[in-house]
From TrEMBL:
Gene3D superfamilies: MFS general substrate transporter like domains. The lineage of its organism: Eukaryota, Metazoa, Chordata, Craniata, Vertebrata. PANTHER family: MAJOR FACILITATOR SUPERFAMILY (MFS) PROFILE DOMAIN-CONTAINING PROTEIN, SOLUTE CARRIER FAMILY 2. Its main location: membrane. It is found in: Membrane. This is GTR5 protein.
Length: 230
């Protein structure tokens, strides 16, 4: 029993690893907006499976749901940061990216508070707690279609300059945005001469060794700094 519940907890991380590994391929092929929309559907399905596990008397449904949640979270983190940063005007880009981390931590706090026995962590209400992760996904699924695709994606990967201008006007209002479009074109020209490394190539590259060590140490120790309590 301990082994089964340990797998149920840890399989979220395994799903997250798979989801984040495939995020780059999916975003280049389908675009960030479409990936986020499909990702919301995946999270809603996962939430439904976990929410119905008690009625079905199946712990396997919790296991499957947790794995799907992990894949969805692994896809969502890089996708959301990139999309929010790319649709934000330059002067608000840093602020917009920082809000992603803020709401990520806030969501964890809300989950931990909701999981108390006095709230949704009771014997009768825990299926609702498991299914609650589908609520933010549902909100985004309903609202995201009103937003355009990322302007850099339209210009850099699709070559759609008119679509890029239309998306910029929709996001930032009417005005002269040629400077932003020129910046995207410069980035596109730079990317042509830049080799994209795979995860394995990155780990083998000596030039990035110390940066990689720093990221691994920071990520591993962030759980010890009390961020959830804060």
């Amino acid at each position: 029993l301990l082994f089964l519940w340990s797998i149920t907890v840890s399989i979220f991380g395994i799903g997250g690893l798979l989801g984040s590994s495939g995020s780059r391929y999916l975003t280049v092929k389908y675009g960030k907006k479409k990936c986020l929309l499909c990702n919301n559907l995946l999270m809603i399905v996962a939430a439904s499976i976990m929410g119905c596990s008690k009625i079905a008397q199946s712990f396997e449904m919790i296991l499957i749901g947790r794995f799907m949640c992990g894949i969805s979270a692994g896809l969502c983190v890089p996708l959301h940061h990139q999309y929010v940063g790319e649709i934000s005007p330059r002067k608000l880009r840093g602020f917009a990216n920082s809000t992603s981390s803020f709401f990520w931590s806030l969501g964890k706090v809300v989950g931990q508070i909701s999981g108390q026995r006095e709230l949704l962590g009771s014997q009768s209400l825990w299926p609702m707690l498991m299914a609650s992760c589908g609520l933010p996904a549902l909100v985004q699924l309903v609202t995201l279609p009103f937003f355009p695709e990322s302007p850099p994606y339209l210009l850099m990967h699709k070559g759609d300059q008119e679509g890029c201008k239309k998306a910029i006007r929709q996001l930032w209002g009417e005005g002269h945005h040629q400077a932003e479009i020129d910046d995207i074109m410069k980035e596109k020209a730079t990317m042509k001469n830049t080799k994209i490394l795979s995860v394995l190539e990155l780990m083998k590259e000596p030039a990035f060794r110390w940066q990689l060590y720093m990221i691994v140490i920071l990520t591993a120790t962030v759980q010890l700094c009390g961020i959830n309590a804060v």
